[in-house]
Write a structure and sequence with these properties.
- With 287 residues, this protein is an alpha+beta fold.
- It contains eight helices and ten strands.
- Strands 1, 2, 3, 4, 5, 6, 7, 8, 9 and 10 form a ten-stranded mixed beta sheet that branches.
- Helix 1 links the parallel strand 3 and strand 4.
- Helix 1 runs parallel beside helix 2 and helix 6 packs across helix 7.
- The longest helix is centred in the middle third of the chain and has 16 residues.
- The two termini are 28 Å apart.
Length: 287
């Protein structure tokens, strides 16, 4: 049966894959299996990769511009599409292109967001109609941050990243600096000096609790460029690292304030301005 007769569009369509920031990141313990228990607020921002998809009838999942360092078979966008095919028995395929703007290894969730956008978009393009909870369950097998992007709104995150409570965050503009270093997340979590016993907090106390990124000190010790970025940005506002790094951010109440900071940025640093998002642009692609 032709795709057109099923009401399925076979032209290229573009979908955003927004970044996130960890407004703080606390390690509150460890499970018996070694996984670290965390608490964080994940904030969506309007800086995005663009995922272009075209449904095909062949059943093939084809990545047209894979990154040189990542084989197409290992790319999270390809794995996300094939995961949906396997879970639903869908016989349709998809062609994929990725316009990569989010810094790789920056702690802003780029690969996870790309995978989540593929799952959300194909849920509609392939007319799968899977509920959000099922997509989140499937997405967890691709990476700990994928369920958050499918959840699709700023959240207080607990456990190993699978427990989410929506939280309201202020409309904010962020200055984000990207030090040119790659941080190994497993190496940070193995570091014996990592704080692993920060006292847990609860949602009602978020606005008044002292917060920090428990991974920041370890990352700065191994990567002085991260520390340099934090020091420079701290001249203007409270600055901290997101995730396991390497990106560093600070919040400002207006775009003019944020842009003036970027204007002062030294030539040896890379930075940009982004705005907070209350919901993922594809939030309505799942119920």
């Amino acid at each position: 049966m032709a795709m057109e007769s099923l009401g399925i569009n076979s032209v290229w369509q573009d979908f955003p894959a927004p970044a996130k920031l960890n407004l703080f990141l606390h390690i509150v313990g460890r499970r018996p299996d070694g996984y670290h228990l965390l608490q964080s607020v994940f904030q969506l921002i309007d800086l995005s990769d663009t995922i272009s998809l075209r449904v095909n009838a062949s059943g093939e999942v084809i990545h047209h511009n894979p990154l040189p360092s990542v084989p197409a078979e290992a790319d999270l966008t390809v794995r996300a599409a094939r995961l949906l095919q396997h879970a639903t028995g869908c016989k349709l395929g998809v062609d994929i292109r990725v316009d990569k703007r989010l810094p790789m290894g920056g702690g802003v969730g780029g690969g996870s967001s790309d995978a989540a956008t593929v799952m959300l978009a194909l849920n509609r393009l392939w007319q799968l109609n899977l509920p959000r909870s099922k997509l989140m369950e499937l997405g967890l097998s691709l990476g700990a941050d994928v369920p958050f992007f499918i959840f699709g709104e700023s959240a207080f995150v607990e456990g190993i990243g699978e427990i989410m409570t929506p939280v309201a965050t202020p409309d904010t503009h962020f200055v984000i600096l990207h030090p040119a270093v790659h941080v190994s997340t497993p190496q940070i979590f193995r570091d014996p000096s990592l704080t692993r016993n920060t006292p847990p907090i609860t949602v009602p106390l978020l606005s008044s609790a002292f917060t920090q990124n428990d991974l920041e000190a370890v990352a700065c010790k191994s990567h002085p460029k991260i520390a340099e970025s934090i020091t420079w940005l701290s001249q203007y506002a409270n600055a901290r690292m997101t995730g396991s790094g390497s990106c560093v951010f600070a919040s400002f109440s207006s775009p003019n304030e944020a842009n003036s900071v970027i204007y002062d940025l030294p030539k040896n640093m890379t930075g940009f301005v982004a705005r907070s998002l209350s919901k993922h642009p594809l939030h309505e692609f799942a119920e």
